[in-house]
Design brief:
Elements: E1 16-22, H1 24-27, H2 34-45, E2 49-56, H3 60-73, E3 76-80, H4 91-98, E4 103-105, H5 107-120, E5 138-140, E6 144-146, E7 155-162, E8 165-172, H6 176-194, E9 198-207, H7 211-217, H8 219-223, E10 229-235, E11 238-247, H9 250-268, E12 272-274, H10 281-292, E13 296-300, H11 306-312, E14 321-326, H12 330-337, H13 341-347, H14 352-366, E15 370-376, E16 391-398, E17 401-408, H15 413-436
Parallel strand pairs: 1-2, 1-3, 3-8, 13-14, 13-15
Antiparallel strand pairs: 4-5, 6-7, 7-8, 9-11, 9-12, 10-11, 15-16, 16-17
Helix pairs in contact: 2-6, 3-4, 10-15
Length: 437
């Protein structure tokens, strides 16, 4: 059954929200905490102030102590994990103790747990529900129960008055496959209804400019910002700006955001590759190739197929992608891409000239309209004074035009390879835009 939340009295402006991730496996690094990443992004989109994230192990006294501290400084607390049937699942019990509330049996949750096990084994004789599963049917007195359509442990929203201030504690299951649908189906609307304003965000994705330079280019906008606000987010090889406005309606917020987006487009021009939250650099490249009705092939050395892997992640890539060559050895470059051995002997395999011939060979051998070729030294060994670790040449051939870029990337082997892929995608994007202009 769906749950609808009426707008409650006493909405909170500038809400402070806090995340508590429960689980010893998170502290030990056995499980990556993707829940915190997801919830942080969603809370930011709601315009909430997220000042603290805490991870606590499966320890009752530490969890209750953390809860007490959080309630002193935050209006809303979201806990993930610790709602299962075992003894180390103690989140619900800790919240009940801190709020001085009882745990009572929720018959609706008990029926849903029975239904869950029955659906797994329709033969009633084979259904064995262990006693500890009924622990999940206990709810905190006065809580809103959130049905779990992907597991047995329900979630909860508890509203309480602490020291004269209204507080909300939200308990969600730990598995992302259960937590995310529950947040989207129930919690997001609840949090939205607590707001006294509408918050709207738009993203501006930039490639080809470093974080420091990008921020300097809009330093005046950030210094003087009030509403909307601009928040920079750095990624490897990319910079994203999130523009967020608060208003009494979505239409009013959109009107506040549009001039800021226009100004960012004026300053960054074709360094902006997308204004779409869900669009990646490779999506843009494939879209341009399809628009130009051009085919693509790739030739990789130090990246070993990493570039091609990013391209083939895009749905519908079979319409434009022809062939990919991983030519790690010198002999493979000569044999598969028709690179001249004399070129390798004269300039070295990591060179502008070899990258150029790799790009030409990829187009010629496959019959494609465009190609990207990569050769470099990813490290940690193999470098020299003249050709250090991190030196990479990226060649892009589009029709009859070839551009070769030289880069020296810093960082470990993985970072060098990843930055090379981003730079290759961006070079291809810009080369295709030149045809359209």
């Amino acid at each position: 059954m769906g749950i609808k939340f009426a707008l409650e009295e006493g909405t909170i402006a500038n809400m402070n929200i806090e995340l508590i991730s429960v689980g010893t496996e998170l502290l030990l690094g056995n499980v990556i905490n993707t829940n915190a990443n997801y919830l942080s992004r969603r809370c930011a989109e709601l315009g909430m102030n997220l000042y603290y994230q805490i991870t606590v192990g499966d320890n009752y006294s530490r969890l209750t102590r953390v809860l007490q501290e959080c309630l002193e400084r935050s209006d809303i607390i979201i806990l993930t994990g610790g709602l299962g049937p075992t003894q180390d699942d103690m989140t619900k019990e800790a919240v009940a103790q801190v709020l001085n509330k009882e745990l009572i049996l929720d018959s609706h949750s008990k029926d849903r747990i029975s239904e869950y096990f029955y659906n797994k084994s329709p033969n009633l004789d084979n259904v064995q529900i262990t006693h500890n599963n009924w622990k999940q049917a206990l709810t905190i007195d006065g809580a809103i129960v959130l049905d779990n359509y992907n597991g047995t442990a329900p979630g909860y929203i508890v509203r309480d008055n602490i020291n004269g201030e209204s507080k909300s504690i939200i308990l969600l299951p730990g598995p992302p496959s259960e937590m995310i649908p529950m947040f989207e189906g129930h919690v997001y609307q609840y949090l939205h209804n607590l707001q006294d304003k509408v918050f709207l965000s738009r993203i501006v994705k930039i490639c080809g400019i470093g974080e420091a330079k990008a921020e300097t280019m809009i330093e005046d906008l950030i210094t003087n910002q009030t509403n909307p606000t601009i928040a920079p987010y750095a990624k490897d090889g990319e910079v994203h700006f999130r523009v967020t406005a608060s208003a009494t309606s979505a239409e009013e917020a959109e009107q506040l955001i549009c001039p800021v987006i226009d100004e960012l487009e004026r300053r960054f021009e074709d360094n902006i590759y997308s204004l779409d939250e869900n669009e990646n650099l490779e999506d843009v490249v494939v879209k341009l190739l399809k628009k130009l009705k051009m085919t693509l092939s790739t030739a990789e050395s130090c990246t070993g197929g990493l570039f091609t892997g990013r391209i083939v992640n895009v749905a519908g890539i079979s319409d434009i992608f022809k062939e990919g060559y991983i030519t790690y050895a010198d002999e493979a470059k000569v044999k598969l891409l028709d690179v001249n051995k004399e070129t390798i002997d004269k300039y070295g395999v990591v060179s502008n000239e070899v990258a150029r011939e790799m790009a030409e060979g990829a187009c010629k051998t496959s019959g494609s309209d465009a190609s990207v070729a990569i050769t470099g030294i990813a490290g940690p060994g193999g470098g020299s004074q003249l050709k250090p670790v991190g030196l990479v040449y990226i060649a892009c051939k589009v029709k009859d035009n070839i551009i070769v870029q030289e880069h020296i990337f810093k960082g470990n082997r993985q970072k060098v390879r990843y930055r090379t892929v981003i730079s290759g995608l961006d070079l291809l994007r810009r080369s295709l835009l030149n045809i359209l202009s």
